[in-house]
Specification:
By secondary structure, this protein is α+β, with helices and mostly antiparallel strands. It has ten helices and 16 strands. Helix 1 runs parallel beside helix 4 and helix 2 packs across helix 3. Keywords: Flavoprotein, Oxidoreductase.
């Protein structure tokens, strides 16, 4: 089996195949620990506490999709989320802890219960490191700094791929009975995105060229809080910790758009609200609004939002302990992509 992409999804697929005693290879355009999964910040949702339930997680997710989500897939996802978090903890992920030693949880947008498990504001990096260490105990082949160019299909079945080896400058063929596409998003087609420069949609394009069906490409998520100039993500965890959004008039404007949940409305609601404020003249000169954290206090900000502090100070010249953060929405996530069933199978055998 050949896995294209070495982020969290690709590594976990490879681990499952290795555990099933398959001959596994991974190709990645960069070192696995540089995969874009490492940029995830605020946390992952899972119903793991006694006060929470999978059913309420399912409901919140369906509602958050404006009832457009695939409900069978949502149910599967929510039921697997808790065991996956526990599994990752057993692999050594250093999650943040509550005072009683249990997994710490913070509120997140669109959730009716604080169910977001996190590792400060470096959750993706913590998960990626733990999974890579676990996968490193197994035998597999890694093609590092290889770029996927084509998925080879003959007589309706996958036969392997063609990839470009950047170190030698040669195109190479790799035969495989099955190929897993885990190449991540295509955010770099947008001028303003939180995605890394490696997120160019290679896997989706190659699958389409090979005859795979694509699905739901119109569903593109915009994250409401990205640094104004660079588009660097400012985690939703900042608002989960109590951060608030204000316009040029000093108003906490989310009360007009989501009076019950305010700044923790779902991302599409908050993004539209920010754009509306700016378009109607209530943004700051330069077309942005402020995210304020100052009231949380220095210790809480620097403990729970360490990476955000670094990003703001280094890339925006702003200290969030004493000054508001200038933010505006940016493209963040692609819900659509290669069409699959709930088992991840496409219309092409072996893909």
């Amino acid at each position: 089996m050949l896995v294209v992409g070495a982020g969290l999804a690709g590594q976990r697929a490879a681990l499952a195949a290795v555990e099933a005693r398959r001959d596994v290879a991974i190709i990645s355009k960069l070192h696995p620990l540089r995969s874009h999964s490492g940029a995830a910040q605020g946390g992952i949702n899972a119903a793991v506490g006694k006060e929470d339930s999978v059913d309420t997680h399912i409901y919140d997710t369906v509602k958050g999709s404006d009832y457009l989500g695939d409900q069978d897939a949502i149910e599967f996802f929510c039921r697997e989320a808790g065991p996956t978090v526990v599994e990752m903890e057993h692999y050594g992920t250093i999650f943040s802890r509550a005072e009683d030693g249990s997994l710490a949880r913070r509120p997140f947008g669109g959730q009716g219960f604080p169910r977001t498990i996190y590792a400060a504001d470096r959750t993706g990096l913590a998960l990626l490191q733990a999974l890579w260490e676990r996968l490193g105990t197994e035998h597999f082949t890694l093609y590092q700094e290889w770029d996927l160019t084509n998925i080879v299909v003959r007589e309706g079945r996958v036969q392997g791929i063609v990839a470009f080896d950047r170190r030698t400058g040669q195109f190479e063929g790799i035969a495989a009975k099955s190929v897993v596409v885990a190449t991540g998003p295509a955010g770099r087609i947008y001028g303003r995105t939180t995605n890394a420069h490696t997120c160019t949609g290679d896997g989706v394009a190659a699958a389409y060229d090979a005859g795979a069906l694509l699905k739901d490409l119109e569903f593109v998520q915009f994250h409401p809080t990205a640094l104004l100039e660079s588009g660097i993500l400012i985690t939703e965890g900042a608002r989960g910790e109590g951060g608030i959004l204000k316009n040029v008039l000093g108003e906490r404007f989310m009360g007009k758009y989501a009076p019950h949940v305010l700044d923790l409305a779902s991302r599409d609601v908050v993004s539209r609200a920010i754009v509306t404020e700016v378009r109607e003249g209530r943004g700051f000169p330069g077309n942005f609004v402020h995210l304020e954290l100052m009231h949380l206090g220095k210790e809480r900000i620097e403990t729970r939002l360490q990476e955000i502090c670094d990003f703001c100070r280094n890339f925006a010249g702003v200290d969030p302990v004493v000054n508001p953060i200038p933010i505006f929405p940016a493209q963040h996530y692609m819900m659509g992509g290669v069409g699959t069933n709930i088992r991840g199978e496409t219309n092409i055998a072996g893909l």
